[in-house]
């Protein structure tokens, strides 16, 4: 194996870089490069004298410079490219800039702009980042992971996607690597997971996206998406290799197609430390948002009737978690399940539908119940379900922009003093409704949260803060809690603890207040989630390190974007 240009030694609240490289190699290694912030003495030690402008900058001065450059970028995609290039040049500077401007930059490194970057991947490609695994070469999985140069204690987590259901924009083939990279940027910015202790992965199964297959620049496998036993073989090769090479790492699954997402989680969650963000992360943050909304409405979760528009991975992950909570609050399992009406492409899920997926079956309504409900070619539609079921909560995970129409929303407001309406689909272009419309149509009565970020809405003298109900409030802290405890599994109790921690930071009882903590406090929220998750893992006997002081242990583990202490070592 090639000799590494540096070694990082992680100590509580400090990282030391033992640097073997000299000269230009230092400047082209983004983890140790600090450009004009190298002192004159460091330049001499690392053979950089004469290779940099003579002025010496501070990190703060560099942040001012790159912030100004960032603001000059003409479009959101140009901003995304600018940040990607900065990360490839100087990782500490990138994360410092991101941390200091998180609310402004989250919409660029994450939803919505990351969606555009994913669609444009093969055109905007500049420098490779992450691990690319192919369904055509399962034999190369272990080699590819070894080629990262990382050892058994070096990796806290991997984010992998098969790219079939990227956000709400569907099959994106090899470009899905950018959702893994984007999620990891949030892990680092929000929870201080060290950027060198994570790996973004794409599992290239081919693609059914004809735009990509017909694009001469496309960089992925040029064939249709593989759906047979070879799919499972690649997933299995990946899990096996990860468990062997990185035994303490958490495996995060992102944006899989709905038929595979749950199946994969069910298969591996009892075997290793694994987490599906779209199901579990989303469910935890939505539970927190619903707790907050129900409290603001002066009601109880156990009293709600809930319509889920989009009975896929996210939608029914949310339903499962809300249902479990209703049961904890005293409803019988049948009563709790009966509170849900779920719609998919075929309209309301009804029990005689042979196309139901196994996880949809429990939520299907009986044919007899809906016999008199008007139905069109697309089954029983959302407007009918809302008028017949009279829900208190409407949740959108359908990817259908504008599905929450004015008449549906007005109807919700006609029988609810505070209708709870959560259009969660991403990116922004897929939102089921826009918050300003929801607020106008309900005359300010709505309690809402969205998947992608929105500006506050001003209506009749009140500034309504729009909560971003996005799994970004949960997964970074969850990953940190797992890393601190080296948890062997992720349990339902750990996910519930994450939801409780977010809920404890939310209070929407004043007019216009956000249902969830704002992204400005994402780092604090992530630390709170991490502590709660670490304690839950410990209580369930899943922690593999002693948790003597969870607050201190979590705080010590949070990397701050500061230049590491440099110790030059012999080549
Ligand atoms: N805010 C957040 O944190 C999260 C938001 N999401 C968003 O939720 C959306 C769905 O994501 P997944 O659940 O992963 O996708 P999925 O493909 O598993 O689910 C989508 C569901 O919508 C249904 N659907 C499609 N057209 C419909 C229509 N016309 N009427 C009713 N239902 C329809 C599909 O049948 C499917 O059940 C995406 O836009 C995604 O960005 C997903 C995860 C987290
Ligand atoms: C936020 C997220 O995970 C999604 O939209 O898929
Ligand atoms: Mg997702």
Automatic annotation (TrEMBL):
SUPFAM superfamilies: Aminoacid dehydrogenase-like, N-terminal domain, NAD(P)-binding Rossmann-fold domains
Segments forming domain Malic enzyme N-terminal: 87-269
GO molecular function term, any single one: metal ion binding
Catalytic site positions: 110 (proton donor), 183 (proton acceptor)
Pfam family, one: malic
Cofactors that this protein relies on: Mg(2+); Mn(2+)
List of residues binding (S)-malate: 426, 470
Keyword Metal-binding set for record: yes
InterPro entries for the chain: Aminoacid_DH-like_N_sf, Malic_enzyme_CS, Malic_N_dom, Malic_N_dom_sf, Malic_NAD-bd, Malic_OxRdtase, NAD(P)-bd_dom_sf
GO biological process, one term: malate metabolic process
One GO CC annotation: cytosol
Residue sites binding a divalent metal cation per the record: 254-255, 278
Record key words, sorted: Metal-binding, NAD, Oxidoreductase
Cofactor: binding comment: Divalent metal cations. Prefers magnesium or manganese.
SMART domains: malic, Malic_M
Domain Malic enzyme NAD-binding, residue spans: 279-538
Protein origin, superkingdom: Bacteria
Family, similarity comment: Belongs to the malic enzymes family.
UniProt-recorded name of the protein: Putative malate oxidoreductase [NAD]
């Amino acid at each position: 194996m090639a000799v590494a240009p540096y070694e990082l030694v992680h100590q509580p609240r400090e990282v030391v870089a033992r640097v073997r490289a000299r000269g230009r190699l230092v400047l082209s290694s983004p983890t140790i490069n600090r450009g004009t912030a190298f002192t004159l003495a460091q330049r001499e030690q690392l053979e950089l004298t004469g290779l940099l402008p003579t002025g010496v900058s501070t990190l703060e001065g560099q942040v001012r410079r790159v912030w100004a450059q960032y603001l000059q970028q003409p479009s959101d995609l140009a901003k995304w490219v600018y940040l990607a290039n900065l990360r490839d040049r100087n990782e500490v500077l990138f994360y410092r800039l991101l941390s200091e401007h998180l609310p402004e930059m989250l919409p660029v490194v994450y939803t919505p702009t990351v969606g555009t970057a994913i669609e444009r991947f093969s055109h905007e490609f500049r420098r490779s980042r992450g691990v690319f695994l192919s369904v055509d070469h399962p034999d190369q999985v272990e080699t590819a992971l070894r080629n990262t140069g990382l050892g058994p204690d070096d990796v806290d987590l991997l984010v992998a996607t098969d790219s079939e259901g990227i956000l709400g924009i569907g099959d994106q083939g090899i470009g899905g690597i950018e959702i893994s990279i984007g999620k990891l940027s949030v892990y680092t910015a929000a929870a201080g997971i060290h950027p060198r202790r994570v790996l973004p992965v794409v599992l290239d199964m081919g693609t059914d996206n004809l735009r990509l297959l017909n694009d001469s620049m496309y960089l992925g496998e040029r064939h249709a998406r593989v759906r047979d036993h070879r799919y499972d073989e690649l997933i299995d090769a990946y899990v096996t290799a990860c468990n062997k090479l990185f035994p303490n790492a958490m495996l995060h699954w992102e944006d899989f197609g709905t038929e595979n997402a749950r199946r994969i989680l069910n298969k591996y969650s009892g075997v290793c430390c694994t987490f599906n963000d779209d199901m579990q992360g989303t469910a935890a943050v939505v539970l927190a948002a619903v707790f907050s909304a129900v409290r603001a409405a002066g009601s109880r979760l156990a009293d709600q009737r809930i319509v889920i528009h989009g009975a896929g991975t996210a939608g029914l992950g949310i339903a499962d978690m809300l249902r479990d909570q209703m049961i904890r609050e005293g409803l019988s399992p049948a009563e709790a399940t009966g509170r849900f009406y779920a719609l998919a492409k075929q309209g309301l899920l009804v029990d005689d539908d042979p196309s139901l997926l196994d996880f949809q079956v429990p939520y299907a309504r009986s044919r007899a119940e809906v016999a008199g409900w008007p139905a069109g070619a697309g089954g029983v539609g959302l407007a009918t379900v809302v008028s017949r079921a009279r829900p208190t909560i409407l949740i959108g995970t359908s990817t259908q922009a504008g599905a929450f129409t004015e008449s549906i929303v007005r109807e919700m407001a006609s029988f609810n003093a505070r209708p709870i309406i959560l259009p969660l689909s991403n990116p922004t272009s897929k939102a089921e409704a826009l918050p300003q419309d929801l607020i106008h149509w309900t005359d300010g009565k709505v309690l809402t949260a969205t998947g992608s970020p929105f500006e506050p809405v001003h209506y009749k003298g009140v500034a309504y803060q729009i909560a971003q109900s996005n799994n970004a409030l949960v997964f970074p802290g969850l990953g940190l809690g797992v890393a601190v405890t080296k948890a062997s599994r992720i349990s339902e109790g750990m996910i519930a603890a994450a939801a409780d921690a977010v809920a404890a930071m939310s209070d929407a009882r004043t007019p216009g207040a956000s249902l969830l903590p704002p992204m400005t406090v994402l780092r604090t929220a992530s630390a709170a989630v991490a502590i709660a998750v670490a304690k839950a893992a410990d209580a369930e006997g899943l922690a593999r390190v002693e948790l003597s002081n969870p607050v201190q242990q979590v705080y010590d583990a949070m990397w701050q974007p500061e230049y590491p202490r440099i110790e030059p070592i012999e080549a």
